[in-house]
Write a structure and sequence with these properties.
By secondary structure, the protein is an alpha+beta fold. The protein folds into 3 domains: 117 residues, 3-Layer(aba) Sandwich (Rossmann fold); 149 residues, ATP-grasp fold, B domain (D-amino Acid Aminotransferase, Chain A, domain 1, 2-Layer Sandwich), CATH 3.30.470; 66 residues, 2-Layer Sandwich (Dna Ligase, domain 1), CATH 3.30.1490. Helix content is 35%, strand content 27%. It is built from 11 helices and 18 strands. The longest helix has 20 residues.
Length: 355
Amino acid sequence: MLQLALIFGGRSAEHEISLASARFVAAMLDREKCDVIPVGIARDGRWLQPTDLEAALRDGLDATPAQAAHLVVDPAGPGLQLADGSFQPLDFAFPIMHGTFAEDGTIQGLLEMAGLAYAGSGVVGSAVGMDKELMKDVFAARGLPQVEYLVLRDAAARGAAAVAAVEQRLPYPVFVKPVNLGSSVGMTKAHDHAELGAALELAASYDRKVIVEASSPGREIECAVLGNEDARASVAGEVIPANEYYDYEAKYTEGMMSFVIPADIGAGKQAEVGELAVAAFAALDCSGFARCDFFLEDDGRVLVNEINTIPGMTAMSGFPRLWAATGVDGRALVDEIVQLGLRRQAARGSVRTDH
């Protein structure tokens, strides 16, 4: 029986979304194949093992009895050291967290040091996929089509000089985002000079780097990817938000968006989106699973927007819905993600570390 740590919560602004995603994964894990060991990371970074996983995911870690837990970084015997003195051995970790200290390579590096197999991309794919600047730079190096963008850092991301730098490069409207955050947290669509200044201030409050992107009038398309070196794409879907654009409210509020699967874009564009999704996945050396977002322009061009290496898995999320429409239900999807993580670990174990 696989001893599987389901790791959720985290220190990022996407803590609550992680709980919702973990509810889906917990429900889909095959309990005949694995013992699910709950590991919650509180907003202040404390690792906890709640006594009741369902209650922790429903009510939050602060409202659920739990004991302190520490990951034992020992490749010969990874596991959890618990406050009651017991030791819980682990075979696998399924981090289902989003944003900083979660999706950005940090927890992946910790799991690597512990010698623990885990779900999803490794340190490099996670880190580059989280940093929108580096991600777009890699896409550009691989020749993948995308919108124009500008990155501002630290003090240069705020004030009149920042506004002037953007206006010199990009026409309105523009999208302003923290570089290292997801779920549209801290994102604004700025239509003019006044809105841009406020948008930069908001984004800069979440990260030391701010990315400003040219607005695309195209349709918003999503495609999911599964695999390691042999990745494959799901059918593509179209996001139609009730708001002006696909913001946080549209993503996580019932009735604020519709998701058309498959997207009505024709077989040729479906194939092109799938090929670009796999190419983006490979460009960042991703593994396991991811979701790629695109714009389909009026002239037929498909532009890569971004990749999410730990996509949302709530009841409303595109990732599981895209795979369901492709013929992979939730249970099979989560099982394949686990198997891909185990195969990745086995492959890494065959790599020499001597000379």
